[in-house]
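Example 9 (inverse folding). The structure is encoded as follows.
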């Protein structure tokens, strides 16, 4: 019963959408297990670009079925918009997309709370999609699950109680307005959502008993993990592989292999520590070449060099056995290429990402300069086509991290993806 978890190994935007889509042609199920429409997974097919936020990236192939697991937070209005977009572009969604009855619902007041908080001193640069406030309500045991949303009486009572709890922060008038807005949109959204809903945990367990192949698609990345990331500059869920069990409703023993997706350099969007961040002129070059703008918010991404201590932490926590190295083409023309091999902090060398906020701010990267490469890597179709220095860069990373790069990607499209190391990815 093979389950392959595909995890973001950095701060998100590693190219998970593209890699999951690439692998999903050989999968029966693709499952999102955390996050919500804060995610932006870009998949390019035949020159057409799809930005997915809630639907698993397997939706774009006809074969796999797709599940939004219990660990995801679902904004029904955002899902409606995405399903419409997909259907307008000729993708069959109905009968292929399943939403967990246990998933929590993002409501307009969650977005209002996100905006209020991001306007204050504690701002961390969220996507303003209401993700944090929705998970807060879940943990506070006043959230609305999809199962609750489908029952009008239950939903109305829960909405009223939640707004009562938040009226201090929202303001009484605003809380009343949000309630009216929510209830006005509710009947149509409920009607739209109902046919997609089911017990996805059970459905996937059955598929596994029937020896089906399941891909787990993380959103965000290891360093945005609520427990293991750069707290408090994190998202409010667990993108690490452990999150896949809780967030899909599967036991830990179900996961056979973990593939970590990492860019050949590093990016981050939003605030928070970023030890290998580059000076602006250099960052600007990579940002333009690699189109490093958020797929969800359009914000320019911050750019840094590849960070091995950061990746070591991600590999350890998620049990990453293989890497998919993306956007190698974007580094073409950089010479030298710098890679951070350790951090120096208060006279000590650190080989992993530190927990201390102070250390995260003050640690200085120890760099190793590697020879750069030139030319258009986008036309390479196999490893042997890469310039020798690019191949050496990949090999060097594999050795340093003791983790093979099973997939190398040199552009957004399907053909610009090749398998590198031998052996099955599925464990
Ligand atoms: P939230 O998930 O909207 O609460 O945002 C929390 C932090 O995670 C912010 O720094 C966001 O920029 C970041 N973030 C959330 N989703 C993504 C993503 O899909 N890619 C990259 N960063 C993200
Ligand atoms: Mg993204």
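The amino acid assigned to each position is listed next.
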């Amino acid at each position: 019963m093979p389950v392959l978890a595909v995890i973001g190994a950095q701060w998100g935007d590693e190219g998970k959408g593209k890699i999951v889509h690439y692998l999903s042609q050989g999968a029966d199920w693709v499952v999102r297990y955390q996050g919500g429409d804060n995610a932006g997974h870009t998949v390019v097919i035949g020159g057409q670009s799809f930005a997915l936020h809630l639907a698993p990236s397997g939706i774009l192939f006809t074969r796999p079925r797709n599940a939004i697991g219990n660990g995801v937070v679902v904004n029904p209005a955002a899902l409606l918009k995405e399903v419409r977009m997909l259907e307008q572009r000729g993708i069959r969604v109905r009968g292929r997309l399943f939403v967990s009855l246990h998933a929590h619902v993002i409501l307009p007041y969650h977005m209002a709370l996100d905006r209020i908080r991001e306007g204050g001193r504690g701002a961390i640069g969220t996507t303003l999609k209401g993700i944090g406030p929705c998970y807060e309500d879940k943990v506070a045991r006043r959230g609305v699950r999809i199962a609750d949303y489908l029952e009008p009486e239950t939903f109305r009572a829960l909405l009223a109680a939640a707004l009562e709890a938040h009226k201090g922060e929202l303001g009484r008038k605003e809380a009343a307005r949000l309630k009216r807005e929510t209830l006005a949109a509710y009947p149509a959204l409920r009607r739209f959502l109902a046919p997609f809903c089911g017990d996805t945990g059970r459905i996937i367990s059955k598929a596994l008993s029937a020896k089906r192949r399941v891909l787990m698609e993380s959103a965000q990345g290891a360093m945005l993990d609520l427990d293991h990331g750069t707290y408090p500059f994190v998202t409010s869920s667990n993108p690490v592989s452990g999150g896949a069990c809780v967030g899909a409703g599967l036991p830990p023993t179900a996961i056979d292999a973990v593939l970590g997706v990492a860019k050949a350099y590093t990016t981050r969007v939003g605030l928070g520590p970023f030890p290998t961040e580059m000076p602006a002129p250099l960052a600007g070059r990579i940002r333009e070449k690699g189109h490093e703008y958020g797929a969800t918010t359009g914000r320019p991404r911050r750019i840094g060099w590849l960070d091995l201590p950061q990746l070591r932490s991600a590999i350890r926590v998620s049990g990453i056995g293989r890497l998919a190295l993306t956007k190698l083409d974007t580094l073409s023309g950089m010479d030298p290429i710098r890679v951070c091999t350790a951090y120096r902090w208060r006279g000590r060398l650190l080989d992993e990402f530190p927990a201390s906020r102070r250390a995260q701010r003050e640690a200085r990267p120890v760099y190793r300069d590697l020879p750069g490469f030139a030319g258009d890597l986008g036309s390479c179709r196999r490893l042997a086509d890469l310039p020798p220095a690019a191949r050496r860069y990949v090999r060097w990373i594999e050795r340093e991290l003791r983790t093979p790069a099973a997939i190398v990607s040199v552009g957004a499209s399907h053909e610009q993806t090749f398998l590198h190391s031998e052996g099955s990815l599925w464990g």
